[in-house]
Amino acid sequence: MGLRERKKARKRQEIVTAALVLFAQHGFKNVTVTAIAQQAHITPKTLFTYFNSKADIIFCHETDLLVALQHLIQQQTSIANVWPTFHQFIAHLPLLTATKQATRDMQQLIKQVNRMPELKDRYFQMWAHYIDGLQNTLIQQRLADQLTAYIFAQQMVLILQMMFAPEVTLHNWEKRTTYVFTKLNQVATLTNRESIID
């Protein structure tokens, strides 16, 4: 990354930090773009070269995990490999150098959304974007048809939502991962049994 890109990335982070401080102090609705720009020592016009809206500032890292998951899927040669690989990915998510910051960023985002109910719609849009992105990647890699890819993507996002629930911390991450995947396997077993009986 060149000097110019590093300066832009640093300024972008300064804007995010300034906005988060103001949101924590005054609430999302009560903070203007002008106030954020002043706190970051820039003009509102400059702020808009980095972000289109206040919500974009909070959701600035929303696709980091999606990109990592898409990369994971692109490395698979069979749909049978996707689920065990995804399980391992989730189990090690907060520990891997490549995903440690993305995990922290997502946890921070979820905390912000929980404190600011006006962001719920954007939050649900984010997960819908994850489902679309994962489904499309599975199809592009020729790992699944449209319906199978959609079901896989839905399950992956459901697990992400459970793992990023407010009560999950880095201290209980491994235990939560085991619990979630065990329960999901139990449901799959029960579903298979029911379909055999029918």
UniProtKB/TrEMBL annotation:
Start and end residues of each HTH tetR-type domain: 9-69
Gene3D superfamilies under this entry?
A: Tetracycline Repressor, domain 2
**Pfam family membership, one:** TetR_N
- InterPro entries named in the record: Homeodomain-like_sf, HTH-type_Tx_Regulator, HTH_TetR
Q: Where's DNA bound on this chain?
A: 32-51
- Record's keyword annotation contains Repeat: no
- Give one GO term, molecular function aspect: DNA binding
Q: Where does the record place a coiled coil? A: none
For this protein, the record's PROSITE patterns field holds: HTH_TETR_2 (PS50977)
> What's in the keyword line of the UniProt record?
DNA-binding
What protein is this chain from?
Answer: TetR family transcriptional regulator
Organism, scientific name: Loigolactobacillus rennini DSM 20253
